From TrEMBL:
A Pfam family reported for this protein in Swiss-Prot or TrEMBL: ABC_tran
Every ABC transporter domain range: 7-239
Source species of the chain: Rugamonas apoptosis
Superkingdom to which the source organism belongs: Bacteria
Molecular-function annotations in GO: ATP binding; ATP hydrolysis activity
Key word Lyase present: no
Annotated protein name in UniProt: ABC transporter ATP-binding protein
Entry-linked PROSITE patterns: ABC_TRANSPORTER_1, ABC_TRANSPORTER_2
InterPro entries recorded: AAA+_ATPase, ABC_transporter-like_ATP-bd, ABC_transporter-like_CS, ABC_transporter_ATP-bind, P-loop_NTPase
Species lineage: Bacteria, Pseudomonadati, Pseudomonadota, Betaproteobacteria, Burkholderiales
UniProtKB keywords: ATP-binding, Cell membrane, Membrane, Nucleotide-binding, Transport
Amino acid sequence: MMRRVAIELKNVSRQFISPAGKVTLALRDFSLTVNEGDFCVIVGPTGCGKSTTLGMITGLNPPSTGTVEVFGKPVTGIDPDIGFVFQADAVFPWKNVLDNVAVGPIYRGKPAAQAREMAAHWVRRVGLAGFEHHFPHQLSGGMRKRVALAQTFINEPKILLMDEPFSALDVQTRALMQDELLGLWSEKKASVVFVTHDIEEAIALGDRVVVLSKGPGSVKCSYDIGLPRPRDVSTARYTGEFIDLSRKIWSDLKDEVQI
Ligand SMILES: Nc1ncnc2c1ncn2[C@@H]1O[C@H](COP(=O)(O)OP(=O)(O)OP(=O)(O)O)[C@@H](O)[C@H]1O
């Protein structure tokens, strides 16, 4: 069966003009197609336009030329079917865990009691049972990330955009969160675009890893990741296929950062 195209960027470019009039071309002739239910990971050298790409899919940052479509429609503004998780936690410091997770449904018009019931389910789902009444400053970094995941998944986004969400975590916590993310994702299979600098994270998570060239970014190459699912991140990384992919992507990126 042919799957629908979830996200399509066609021949996109994006330039920024500073107040002093300096022009930066962030992306040039950039094209990317993400099918429905696919987990697409973008890696690339610093400043190559990865975050800019996500901004274009959200509609916050329109392209200078080219087209961006989500489920066949041009992106015109913020779409409630799109969820985001960024590096910085988007939790409200003055709300407890339960109220932080209930924010999405309340914003979408659910009555408070129902929203809190849904939130209680998601708090348990991400392993935070017992912490409902804790405030963000009373949690570890990994626990705050769990709150962020619950906050996002409670809205059942069809599209999920993630910009280095786990890069501030220590290695063990990061691996745990990668497994948690894959577990959550596998239930509904949102179409994901995940940006990271971590090549092993890219291979462990993705159906596809897209490597960008240095800025102005465009697609340098793309790898289909055939590792079986469900994946256990900590064991997948010792397979020959994983190590082989990792070596290839490292060498692609090395070419891009050499001066
Ligand atoms: N609002 C803006 N105004 C001016 N220049 C910008 C703006 N946003 C991004 N840029 C420039 O566009 C280029 C791409 O930035 P972007 O943040 O997309 O890169 P990135 O690949 O996500 O980088 P990193 O890996 O370091 O996070 C950079 O040269 C950046 O300085």
